[in-house]
Fold:
Amino acid sequence: MEPAADEGTRLSLRRFFKVLLAATLSELFVFALLVALHAALSSQPLEAAADFAGVSLAFTAMATLGAGVAFGWVGFPKYRVPIIFLAIVAGSTLGAHLYIINNPSLPACRDTATNVNGCIMDESYYVPAAEVLLKGTQCGPSVANCNSEHPFLAKALIAAGIAAFGDNAPGWRVLNVLLGTFSLPLIFLLALKVSESRKVAYLSTVLLGLDVMFFSQSSAALLDVPMVFFALLAFVLYFYKVSFWKLDRFTVAGIFMGLSALCKETGIFLMATLATYHYFAGEGEKRLRTVSALEVAIVTAGVFFIGLQAYDSLLARSAFPTFLDQIHYILSYGASLIGPGWSYGGPYGNATQITPLSWITFYQPVTYYGVSAPVCTSMLNGVCQGSISLPTIAYYGVTNVLETWTIYIWIPIAAYAVWKRYRQRLDGLDTFGFVDPQAAETTGSTRLAVLSLIWFSWNYLPYVGMWLYGRVTYPFYFIPALPSVAMGAAYFLTRKVVPGYAVAMYLAGAFFFFLVFFPDKTFLPVWLRALLGK
Structure:
């Protein structure tokens, strides 16, 4: 009787989870519709209805998450250890984000010289753009703060946070925090499915979570983390072969890749990663792989074009009559970013420029936002005799270099493993290491090597080309490559030649680096804070 009771509980939780999931998706649609109507027909009742829908959506989504975890715990006992692991990692990450979510905080974040100190880096552009979107302001050539050089979706998510939690620092940042946190379970699921190894999945998740730049960007109202989140979701849907109604997994993955590109246009490289992987290493004969890869690309483009046109028709009719006009503006704006970009180590004329080569070697950590306060260094009879200004809050734009430098180990190993596996297989492009599954059995380790190599190539090498062409290339452009860095490092750390104590030392080093560059510096010793201050 006990197994029957367990089965009954499982079915009940499954039904409850499906009801909540349907409710969440319905509320998401209603919320998007209300925001769109408010944009077209701005009114107080519509704004109030959108605010209420946003709050309701937040609570329903959290209930859905809880029900999903409960269903997974009861319905899939063999995955209870991974569920506990993900709960600890995601819970710790979320807690760390929420601990600092209100720092920095000013009454408003505006793109003006007098008020940028309330913002973390480009929040000074994206928060005002979200406020403009939420108010339904029509964007024309003369309207400030529309930020039309990037698509709208990530800023719409910021607007949703403002609608749900208020026009304040937590409201600006909360959805980015959630998407950054939920990216960790997604990379776990992706690495687990591709590699067929829990150890690889555990390491990939921890390493992405310990990346300083990914954490900093997840803590702020910026664009790159939502782009990565939707791309990771698309990869998970693709590898788990999720279909919906009459939509196959390629269409479903393409839809979410389109949402990734609507967050930031460089999501196109993540779509290219998926299409390239499927063409070379996916299932089926070559002709079918070609058609399916094109399906992903076409659906992604369709979602991107339709989304842009919806925004332009509602909010930017005078500036961009069609989505082609905004695409032209986006490309023109990007082409105009010519010059040395960010630098460090001296005045402008003598500074060291940060280039894509610096991303994978060394550059002085960029401070997105920093505040210092005096700390007493000597006391006499209870009176401070000397003090030094030390950082208290500082968000840094730097990757976890221990992870990044590992590319010099895992990329050659992965490339050799792929070449060795397939060197005598098919002619043409397939001789570079990709083969039809019917022609050779592909191991999980090899699939992970292939995916990591393709992912890193598509999300790093184009920026090298842009830099050589003279374009500005900011360090945070490396963020879309970070999942491949994490998976590639996990691929190396799980080789038989790597002893367990070396893995433990590596993780300890990555954690220490993360801890040093954690935004809140008040718990660090004075000497280390002084070093960071320099």
Q: What stands out?
A: The first strand starts at residue 343 and ends at 344. The chain has one domain: 76-341+399-533.
